[in-house]
Amino acid sequence: MNLRLPSSPRACTTVRRPAAVAAVSAALLLVAAAPASAHERWFAEHADGGEWSFFLSPVPLLLTAAVVAAAVVWRAVGRRLPRPELRVLEPLGRLAPYVPRLLAIHLGVSLLAFSVTGAFLTPSLPLEDVPGQDLAGVVQAAVGIWLITGVRLRPAAAGVVLLGPPALLAAGPVALLETAGLLGIALFLAILPPSDGTFGRVDPSPERLRAALLSLRALVAVALVALAFSEKFTNPQLARNTLEAYPQLDVFGLVGITVPTDVFIAVAGAVELLFGLLVLSGAIPQVAVLVAMVPFNATLVLFGTTEVIGHLPVYGVFLTLLVYGSNRATADAVPWLPRAADVRALRSLRRPGLSRPQPSVVR
């Protein structure tokens, strides 16, 4: 029997693409399967951070360098893969017009639940520690309800921004950076709010969608990177307290592999840093989201309702990236990053008499 191999470059690319997607999926899954993604401050005794000597030790520095290199390679590989990369998930792309409405519901339910349970913006910040706690709780709940309704959400998005100063006064700038993802969702909704149409349907222009997704990705990445440092890389004692209280989080130990506690903490921080960089990159979003859901869901059985409420906005972000990344018409907008030409285009808009330049599209 004669076997004829594909001879054309297009045919060879078609053969290689599924293998490439499978390879990057397996690699990321192997990395993400290490530590579970629990937020230490939500469940463990607090400890002062700022211990930069831990981060500057060999293992965390080596892992950080490896993670940055992996993120660069991930984006380079993503530029060569088809979009969407997982065609089996294309039916999810039909939800794209309704994503702003769904994202607003995720954030609104979370804010309302925080007020009901006595927290502010995050389970680790008690409402009683916030200046004007009663008013702050009422405003947070009101903004949450407004977001759930889906009606005229630009002012509601501004309301989310106004929740930042009380959090800053109560817990400081690091805590505010840790909740930057909420601001990212607010900016997304300010740029791309649900419409008054059926189920808030939105059919945005490519420029508006790119701007909304870039704002979302950038601020969610800030939150994940901040958490990697504030809860692990520069606060190993907090991570030690968490592992002491919940030894089940040490997945290496569960499979019979003995790893020093500080090495495990460094690996956990590196994984969180990796996810932050992958969100910022926006490349291969379907694979990245599906793999990220593994550690983000692994602790639900252990921590229950608190974990669900705290991660609800993150789930909304994952849904956003997954749906837009599964739609052929919007997939190119997910990994978009502005180039020098886009900056020049924005500057030229200020000059009278010039036509509006078209931003570049990153492939």
Write the layout of secondary structure elements.
Layout: H1 9-32, H2 40-43, H3 52-55, H4 58-78, H5 99-117, E1 119-120, E2 122-126, H6 133-149, H7 153-162, H8 164-171, H9 173-178, H10 180-191, H11 206-233, H12 236-245, H13 251-254, H14 261-281, H15 285-298, H16 300-303, H17 305-325, H18 340-348
Antiparallel strand pairs: 1-2
List its salient traits.
363 residues; mainly alpha; two-stranded antiparallel sheet; 18 helices; 2 strands; 2% strand; globular; disordered N terminus; disordered C terminus; transmembrane; transmembrane helix; DoxX family protein; membrane
Task: Please explain how this structure is put together.
65% of the residues lie in helices and 2% in strands. The chain is mainly alpha-helical and 363 residues long. The chain has one domain. It has a two-stranded antiparallel ribbon. Strand 1 (119-120) and strand 2 (122-126) form a beta hairpin. This is DoxX family protein. Keywords: Membrane, Signal, Transmembrane, Transmembrane helix. Residues 1-38 form the signal peptide.
